[in-house]
Design a protein that fits this description.
single chain; alpha+beta; 7-stranded antiparallel β-sheet; 7 strands; rod-shaped
Length: about 180
Amino acid sequence: MNKKNTMIIKKFLLWGFSLLTIHCLLLTAFTGCGEKTSTQAKQAGKVMPRPKPKIPEYVPPPPPKKYTYKGNLYRDPLIPAGAAVYSGIDTAAEVMTSEKLATLQLKGIFRDKDIGIAIITDPNSGSSYILKKGKVYNRKHQVVKGVAGVVRKNNMITLFSDNIKIDLKLKKPGEENKK
């Protein structure tokens, strides 16, 4: 065989091989696009709904711990050290006498935009009182009978009991021991 014939045979084989490859590719491509099966046809017409995601049930957090005030375990800072200690046993309403009224001392005044609050102490018994909105309260926040008062502007308060009127003035720290 000559060289020319070998060349023709090689071209023929190359073309044949190429045609065979293209034919196989086309055959596999078109056989996959045949008619749909019955389940595929049914599903193609319908849109399948998405499954709903599961949302966990809401569990509220535990309530915060309740705060309890333990200040009743400490001494009253308005009572001088070594003075009579409040026992907390007596439940009878306290009555202010004129003798007791004369011994009271004004320890401090707090002012709010609407009201003034005064802290009053009895140096003999060590008791402390609060004057607020015209009423005098003891340490148990009970109204003291027989006395009323007013917080005035110039660091003074006026206490009233029956026919007695007493003005108490706020003393400076050096003046407390003087009388």
